[in-house]
Design a protein that fits this description.
516 residues; alpha/beta; six-stranded parallel β-sheet; six-stranded mixed β-sheet; 45% helix; globular
């Protein structure tokens, strides 16, 4: 039998002390967390007769991007604040029912990345709020088009006298690289099906094709008409007033000697030109001022925190899965959707006895056809397990975003959802001519025409043919999936395919969706 020395005993004592301290700190942290959970709603005080201030700051998204806590430890962060649209709508809904809230104040200048479809959802929530008889007021130093679109539902709209209100319509430009690629000896080998599949045009042309101009202008004209009509209805303006203001803006500015704010009020787009101090008094007349002479109000984040989340103890639930951003294989990155993550979530939902149905919320321009098929196939397995699958389109559900939805049980779209783009393409860049210009040449031997494939060798005729056939196969598969899933004749699908895009209402007319 041996006895321990003094140093081992000291070591054990230090270890026990350290464990005790660490465990104590851990327990205290847990108690603090639980305390904040159970007491947070009680400690937040909402003033009576108050205004709810909607002042979001960040990019509007369907769902926040997952943040890895380790990124913060290593100072790896994207520093891009995000605002979930559901939070804004939830705050409006709660304010509608809360007797302490007497009005809503819109301050939207910090909100970015808003699509027309997302704005429509916010407007509908605000309209429901107004049915209670509670007013909505809006103020901005300057209104962008989309901010004004949402604010147009307000009972009173104020603009800073030094501010501006721009309704620039819709448009866009691409950069085209054909001459640039030719100059440096780089060739874009393009394989595609779909006369209107324009994503590859910048590598093949120096300008936009007439086909692309036709389909895009048709869609943008409809978006502009929808936006104009909504504003005219909200502001009680004559039909055509918004188009006239946008098209003839220079003429309107000439009338006001270049005063943007004056042009807005003289066209009845705003009610008064006031500074914030003046607007504060106006809002104060409705809800009062607090001890610091500020409008008696609560911001929407505090307001949401004061309301406990709805908790339902039903045995069955609906799983809601978001597909947001370009669709790829692998891990989920910022602003993109991982097929691997989506498949895992769908699989967990379909295997759970508590899940009664799956709703997939799609806000994606597409991406990898293979990744989209992985998601679609997992959804189809859920349907075979008798779990209903409903796909809900947000701002855009195009290409791979539509592919994954094609065979679902039901598809819901927003009126201004950009839908479709049923087409397939791939691009292979090679730089053989660039090497030739440098006096560098590539040569070799191969057992088949497909053995020599590298970025410095132009594809052989056989490889060209194989890649084009593969793309055509993918396109045919896409069309057949849509025909099968939407119960449409294949020829009818061909008529709405070819890379064409449609707004939500048109998608329903063409059989690509079921309901707005």
């Amino acid at each position: 039998m041996s006895s321990d020395g003094i140093f081992p005993r000291i070591g054990r004592g230090i270890t026990k002390t350290r464990n005790f301290v660490v465990n104590t700190i851990f327990i205290l942290i847990l108690l603090a967390i639980f305390g904040s959970i159970f007491n947070s709603t009680e400690s937040i005080s909402i003033p009576e007769e108050a205004a709810l201030v909607l002042d979001p700051s960040g990019i509007l998204v369907e769902e926040r991007t997952f943040s890895n806590p380790l990124d913060d430890v290593w100072n790896i962060n994207y520093d891009v604040p995000e605002v979930e649209i559901a939070e804004l709508m939830r705050a409006i809904e709660l304010a509608e029912q809360d007797s302490r809230i007497k009005m809503i104040i819109l301050d939207l200048e910090g909100l970015t990345g808003i699509s027309l479809a997302q704005a429509d959802r916010i407007i509908e929530s605000l309209k429901k709020f107004k049915l209670t008889g509670k007013p909505i007021g809006s103020y901005a130093n300057s209104y962008s088009q989309i901010h004004y679109y949402i604010s147009s539902v307000s009972d009173e709209i104020y603009l800073n006298p030094m501010g501006s209100l721009l309704l620039e319509g819709f448009g866009g430009r691409n950069l085209y690289f054909k001459d640039f690629l030719d100059r440096f000896g780089i060739r874009a080998n393009v394989y595609r099906v779909g006369e209107y599949k324009e994503a590859v045009e910048p590598f093949l042309r120096n300008d936009m094709s007439e086909e692309s101009k036709t389909v895009n202008l048709r869609m943008l004209n409809k978006l502009w008409a929808n936006l104009s009509q909504e504003i005219e209805n909200n502001r009680l303006l004559d039909p055509g007033a918004i188009d006239g203001f946008g098209v003839g803006f220079a003429k309107e500015l000439k009338k006001t000697n270049g005063d943007f704010a004056r042009a807005a009020i003289e066209n009845n787009l705003v009610d008064e030109l006031l500074t914030w101090d003046q607007v504060r008094v106006r809002f104060g007349d409705r809800v009062g001022l607090d001890e610091e002479d500020k409008v008696n109000s609560v911001d929407y984040r505090t307001f949401l925190a004061s309301h406990a989340p709805d908790v339902e103890f039903n045995t069955t639930k609906i799983a809601v899965i978001n597909i947001q951003g370009p669709i790829f294989l692998g891990t989920e990155g910022y602003g993109s959707a991982s097929a691997d993550v989506a498949v895992q979530l769908i699989r967990e939902a379909r295997k759970s006895e508590d899940i009664a149905a799956i709703v997939v919320r799609v806000d994606s321009p597409g991406g990898s056809a293979f990744a989209s098929e992985m998601i679609r196939l997992e959804l189809e397995l859920a349907q075979l397990d008798e779990t209903p699958v409903v796909v809900s389109f947000a701002s855009v559900a195009a290409s791979g975003g539509y592919w994954l939805a094609a065979t679902s049980d039901y598809i819901v779209a927003e009126p201004n959802t950009i839908t479709g783009s049923i087409g397939v393409f791939s691009v292979l860049f090679t730089a053989q001519e660039a090497l030739d210009k440098l006096g560098i040449h590539s040569d070799g031997i191969a057992t088949t025409p497909f053995s020599l494939t590298d970025p410095f060798t132009s594809p052989s005729d056989q490889l060209d043919q194989a890649l084009q056939l593969n793309v055509e196969h993918g396109y045919n598969q896409f069309v057949e999936l849509v025909a099968k899933g939407r119960d449409l004749d294949k020829n009818k699908v061909e008529g709405v395919a070819q890379g064409k895009v449609w707004l939500g209402g048109e998608a329903i007319e063409n059989g690509l969706a079921d309901e707005l």
